[in-house]
Amino acid sequence: MASCTRKDNVSVNVNLTTTSLLSRFLVLFIVSSIASASHFTGGIALDDAKTRKNGLFPEILRDEAVARLKELGKVTDAEGYLERTFLSPASARAGDLIRSWMEEAGLRTWVDQIGNIHGRVEGMNASAEALLIGSHLDTVIDAGIYDGALGIICAVSALKVLKSTGKLGKLSRPVEVIAFSDEEGVRFQSTFLGSAAISGILPITALQISDRSGVTVQNVLKENSFEATKESLLQIKYDPQSVWGYIEVHIEQGPVLESLGLPLGVVKGIAGQTRLKVTVRGSQGHAGTVPMSMRQDPMAASAELIVLLESLCKHPENFISYDGHCNGFTAESLVCTVGEISTWPSASNVIPGEVNFTVDLRAIDDMARESVLFELANQIYQTCDRRSVSCVIERKHDAEAVICDPGLSLQLKSAAYSAMKIMVSEIQDEAPVLMSGAGHDAMAMSHLTKVGMLFVRCRGGISHSPAEHVLDDDVWAAGLALLAFLEMHL
Ligand SMILES: *[C@@H]1O[C@H](CO)[C@@H](O)[C@H](O)[C@H]1NC(C)=O
Ligand SMILES: *[C@@H]1O[C@H](CO)[C@@H](O)[C@H](O)[C@H]1NC(C)=O
Ligand SMILES: [Zn+2]
């Protein structure tokens, strides 16, 4: 369970360090830009801004990266929409394509025994701990082209720029890009097969998980000529001593960056999550004959409970008196959703006998999540008593929050800021810091090493849909930020 200190670590005062790192970046951009240093002084004319931008590899970081996203977006198992599941034929073709791009960027490539694609450059010191950069190559069904692919392609493009400027061999530590084979978990309902194997948290029993048609992970691995034994699985795991950290660029999948008008943000953590199933039982009866005062209606009770949940998560401070243990209650990231409801017998002229609904509750602060759950359970039982219905709450799933490494986040923050300074004229003092409500490979990788993430703005906050969209210039900004981050490791 997270402690308050763990949370507080993230909100370290960044101003001083950001400024000093930032001045390093400005120097870097002045050097790498064709434009003269005078462009950084005072009001920049549009033409000057254009010239300056042109020195920043738009052909690799924007045009080619976008073309590759579109090309990868056509590699699908389905007809007419994008679908690439774990080790499917399309995933294998996508893997080959990514491998060829990695090699072109000067990386040595290989495929591990669970289908992850690796591309690595050793840099100056082959025995130094490696920086890993990754995201996933699988997709959901009827997916967009940016989720997962963006993080892989931006990383390869940034390294390609380093190759073109002759700096690829001058990195102070090895840098490895990993395209994970399974994050969405569409086929086997088990997310993170690829990154969990690398971080060593994938249980051997995962080999026996089967899909809907009874084919196991082991079968699929064997079909694809992987060994699929206990030993081969264990060999995928990285030694924590050999790794310095993990970073991931990913679309935000939410509307915050768009509402701020900024292309990039730094992720402070990935929310912890609890899933509940609530069963409410009353007395089933005739809609016409049972007087209102004599009903035990589980539907009306559920409606009250759902609205109660909403108020609790909107204004937890009205319900929860904290014990003074932490410096205030961190509920800014608290989100609660009832997404599924079923009733029995579900007829218009029958007072239902039973209603089930789910609750999905997420927060960056594990203690806040626990106290909201505790309060929610209290309120549910009280309401059910008052309404004379019986309520059962089952806890179906729990995942702890992952807090991104403060040092890595600080570096990513400066890198994002330096990229945005070029792309967006009105940016003020810092890159925004966001919480991730969705899970990512970084969650699994946090069991191996420190992690950091950058979010990229996407249109309308939409993802897991063909309507998913990232502006070409935002792809560029993400590439520039990664480049700036890599330049810190020269
Ligand atoms: C290379 O990295 C290793 C491991 O971090 C370190 O012990 C060694 O001093 C480094 N060598 C140089 C030349 O920096
Ligand atoms: C509610 O869930 C229980 C099991 O948890 C199940 O037996 C029952 O059929 C469900 N009822 C409805 C209305 O879906
Ligand atoms: Zn994703």
Question: What does the model show?
Answer:
By secondary structure, this protein is α+β, with helices and mostly antiparallel strands. It folds into two domains: 4-270 and 402-487, Aminopeptidase; 272-399, 2-Layer Sandwich (Alpha-Beta Plaits), CATH 3.30.70. It is 38% helix and 19% strand. The chain has 15 helices and 16 strands. The protein has helices spanning 4-10, 15-32, 46-54, 58-72, 89-104, 149-164, 193-199, 217-223, 230-236, 256-260, 298-314, 366-386, 406-423, 441-445, 472-487; strands spanning 108-111, 117-121, 130-136, 175-180, 243-251, 264-270, 272-281, 285-286, 335-337, 341-344, 350-351, 354-363, 390-399, 402-403, 433-436, 451-456. The strands form three sheets. Strands 1, 2, 3, 4, 5, 6, 14, 15 and 16 form a nine-stranded mixed β-sheet that branches. Strands 7, 9, 10, 12 and 13 form a five-stranded antiparallel β-sheet that branches. The chain has a two-stranded antiparallel ribbon with strand order 8-11. Strand 3, helix 6 and strand 4 (175-180) form a beta-alpha-beta unit. Helix 11 packs antiparallel against helix 12 (366-386). The radius of gyration is 25 Å and the shape is globular. It starts with a helix and ends with a helix. 45% of the residues are buried. Mean pLDDT is 87; it is low at 1-46 and 324-328. Zinc ion binds at residues 136, 147-148, 183, 250. Its cofactor is Mn(2+). One of its GO terms (molecular function) is allantoate deiminase activity. It holds the Pfam family Peptidase_M20.
